Amino acid sequence: MWLPNAAVACERPRGRVTRMRPDAADRGDRWDLRRARDGVGRALAASPVVWRGAIAAVGIVVLVAARSGVTELFDEIVGVTLIAIAVLEHAPRLVGGHRAPWWRSGLTAAAGVAMVAWPSETSQSVGLVAAALIATYGAVKSVQAFGSAARERRYDRLARGVLTVALAIVVALFPEATVRVVVVGTGLLWIFRASLVAAAIGRADTMTAAASRADAPPRGRLPGHLTARQMGQVDRDRIDATLFFDGDDGRRRLFRFAILMALSTALATFGVAADSTAVVIGAMLIAPLMTPILATASAVLRGWTAGALRSGGIVLVATVAAVALAYVLTGFVPDLPTVVANDEVTSRTAPNLLDLAIAVAAGAAGAFAVSRSDVSEALPGVAVAIALVPPLAVTGVTLYAGSYEQAAGAMLLFVTNLTAIVAMASAVFLLTGYVDWSRLLRERRRVRTSYATVATGVVLLLIPLGLTTKGLIDDAAALRASQRAASAWLDGTDGISVAALEVEGDRVSITVHGAGTPPAPEVLHARLVEELDREVVVEMRFVPEVVHVIGGDRP
Question: pTM for the complete prediction?
Answer without folding.
Answer: 0.65
